[in-house]
């Protein structure tokens, strides 16, 4: 997937996930029972798949459907809104130095904290060259 991009269309995400899974457009199309042209049009952004099709594509390439859903973050305010929602849902909290932490007493905080710890480990492995960009991106799209 593109590094540094804050927002990727569903089509670009589908293509990246398909390629990470080592599948062709024809293989994904066959798994879904649709034409190869349909997959190509989704990937090019010329046709937008409905939510049910997005779920089926995610299952076909072996990733969590959330990895394909669009989250539009075009500016700092959009990013803050996501962080505010994470505060409400998972206990994400801002630190006085600009860092983020997890209030471990919040309802879903233990799962969030564990996921962040695993993310930190995978990021360290990427930074130290133990894994490549493709493996890191594939891991991110499989996290549940």
Strand content: under 5%
Report the biggest beta sheet as strand number plus sense, adding barrel if it closes.
2 strands, antiparallel
Which strands sit side by side, in order, in the main sheet? 1-2
Number of helices: 7
Keywords: DNA-binding
Protein name: Transcriptional regulator
Organism: Enteroscipio rubneri
GO molecular function: DNA binding
Task: Write a short abstract of this structure.
This protein has helices at residues 10-20, 25-32, 36-44, 51-61, 76-90, 109-127, 133-142; strands at 92-94, 100-102. With 144 residues, it is mainly alpha-helical. The radius of gyration is 17 Å and the shape is globular.
Explain what you see.
GO terms for molecular function: DNA binding. Keywords: DNA-binding. By secondary structure, this protein is mostly helical. It folds into two domains: 10-67, lambda repressor-like DNA-binding domains (434 Repressor (Amino-terminal Domain), Orthogonal Bundle), CATH 1.10.260.40; 76-142, no CATH class. 58% of the residues lie in helices and 4% in strands. It is built from seven helices and two strands; from the N terminus they run H-H-H-H-H-E-E-H-H. It has helices spanning 10-20, 25-32, 36-44, 51-61, 76-90, 109-127, 133-142; strands at residues 92-94, 100-102. A two-stranded antiparallel ribbon has the order 1-2. The model is unreliable at 1-7 (pLDDT under 50).
């Amino acid at each position: 997937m593109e590094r540094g991009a804050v927002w990727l269309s569903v089509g670009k995400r589908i293509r990246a996930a398909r390629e990470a899974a080592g599948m062709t457009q024809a293989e994904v199309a066959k798994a879904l029972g649709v034409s190869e042209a349909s997959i190509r049009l989704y990937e090019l952004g010329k046709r937008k798949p409905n939510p049910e099709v997005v779920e089926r594509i995610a299952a076909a390439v072996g990733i969590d459907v959330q990895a394909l859903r669009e989250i539009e973050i075009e500016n700092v305010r959009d990013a803050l809104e996501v962080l505010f929602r994470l505060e409400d849902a998972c206990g994400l909290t801002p630190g006085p130095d600009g860092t983020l932490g997890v209030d471990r007493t919040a309802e879903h905080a233990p799962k969030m904290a564990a996921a962040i710890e695993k993310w930190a480990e995978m990021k360290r492995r990427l930074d130290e060259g133990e894994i490549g960009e493709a493996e890191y991106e594939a891991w991110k799209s499989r996290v549940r």
